[in-house]
Amino acid sequence: MTRSKIAISLPKEQLARVHREVKAGRADSVSGYITRVLEEQEKRESLQALLRDLTEQFGEPSAEDIEWADRALAPRRG
Protein backbone atom coordinates (compact mmCIF):
# COMPACT_ATOMS: atom_id res chain seq x y z
CA MET A 1 0.00 0.00 0.00
CA THR A 2 1.35 3.38 -0.96
CA ARG A 3 1.40 5.83 1.90
CA SER A 4 1.13 9.61 1.87
CA LYS A 5 2.10 11.95 4.62
CA ILE A 6 -0.46 14.47 5.87
CA ALA A 7 -0.81 16.84 8.76
CA ILE A 8 -3.90 16.74 10.97
CA SER A 9 -5.04 18.69 13.98
CA LEU A 10 -6.57 16.95 16.97
CA PRO A 11 -7.97 18.22 20.23
CA LYS A 12 -5.36 17.91 22.99
CA GLU A 13 -7.37 15.23 24.81
CA GLN A 14 -7.54 13.01 21.72
CA LEU A 15 -3.86 13.43 20.99
CA ALA A 16 -3.04 12.55 24.60
CA ARG A 17 -5.12 9.39 24.24
CA VAL A 18 -3.29 8.42 21.05
CA HIS A 19 0.07 8.91 22.78
CA ARG A 20 -1.11 6.80 25.75
CA GLU A 21 -2.10 4.00 23.35
CA VAL A 22 1.31 4.11 21.68
CA LYS A 23 3.14 4.25 25.02
CA ALA A 24 1.11 1.27 26.30
CA GLY A 25 2.07 -0.72 23.21
CA ARG A 26 -1.46 -0.91 21.82
CA ALA A 27 -0.28 0.93 18.69
CA ASP A 28 3.08 1.03 16.97
CA SER A 29 2.88 4.75 16.24
CA VAL A 30 0.48 7.66 15.97
CA SER A 31 0.06 6.84 12.27
CA GLY A 32 -0.55 3.18 13.13
CA TYR A 33 -3.21 4.14 15.66
CA ILE A 34 -5.03 6.44 13.22
CA THR A 35 -4.84 3.77 10.50
CA ARG A 36 -6.33 1.14 12.83
CA VAL A 37 -9.17 3.43 13.93
CA LEU A 38 -10.02 4.24 10.31
CA GLU A 39 -9.98 0.55 9.36
CA GLU A 40 -12.32 -0.25 12.28
CA GLN A 41 -14.68 2.53 11.16
CA GLU A 42 -14.71 1.14 7.61
CA LYS A 43 -15.59 -2.32 8.95
CA ARG A 44 -18.43 -0.89 11.08
CA GLU A 45 -19.81 0.99 8.09
CA SER A 46 -19.64 -2.17 5.94
CA LEU A 47 -21.46 -4.18 8.60
CA GLN A 48 -24.10 -1.47 8.99
CA ALA A 49 -24.68 -1.48 5.22
CA LEU A 50 -24.97 -5.29 5.25
CA LEU A 51 -27.50 -5.15 8.09
CA ARG A 52 -29.52 -2.49 6.24
CA ASP A 53 -29.52 -4.63 3.08
CA LEU A 54 -30.56 -7.76 4.96
CA THR A 55 -33.32 -5.90 6.79
CA GLU A 56 -34.61 -4.47 3.51
CA GLN A 57 -34.55 -7.90 1.90
CA PHE A 58 -35.89 -10.03 4.77
CA GLY A 59 -37.44 -7.58 7.26
CA GLU A 60 -36.68 -7.06 10.92
CA PRO A 61 -35.71 -10.14 12.92
CA SER A 62 -38.46 -11.63 15.05
CA ALA A 63 -38.19 -12.10 18.81
CA GLU A 64 -37.65 -15.82 18.15
CA ASP A 65 -34.80 -15.03 15.75
CA ILE A 66 -33.13 -12.84 18.36
CA GLU A 67 -33.51 -15.49 21.06
CA TRP A 68 -32.01 -18.11 18.74
CA ALA A 69 -29.06 -15.81 17.93
CA ASP A 70 -28.49 -15.11 21.64
CA ARG A 71 -28.32 -18.85 22.33
CA ALA A 72 -26.16 -19.57 19.29
CA LEU A 73 -23.68 -16.81 20.11
CA ALA A 74 -23.53 -17.36 23.87
CA PRO A 75 -20.10 -18.34 25.20
CA ARG A 76 -19.81 -22.07 25.62
CA ARG A 77 -19.17 -23.33 29.12
CA GLY A 78 -17.30 -26.44 29.83
Characterize the structure shown.
This protein is an all-alpha fold and 78 residues long. The chain has one domain. It is 67% helix and 0% strand. It contains three helices and no strands. The protein starts with 11 loop residues before the first helix and ends in a 5-residue tail after the last helix. The mean pLDDT is 95.
List the helices and strands and how they pair.
Layout: H1 12-23, H2 30-58, H3 63-73
**How much is the radius of gyration in Å?**
19 Å
Mean pLDDT: 95
Overall strand count: 0
Shape: elongated
Tell me about the biggest sheet?
none
Number of domains: 1
Q: Beta-strand percentage?
A: under 5%
Distance linking N and C termini: 43 Å
Helical/strand content category: mainly alpha
- Low-pLDDT stretches are none
Helical amount among residues, as a percent range?
55-70%
- Count of alpha and pi helical runs: 3
Helix-strand topology string: HHH
Keywords:
67% helix; 3 helices; mainly alpha; 78 residues
Give a short summary of the structure.
The chain has 78 residues and is mostly helical. It has one domain (12-73).
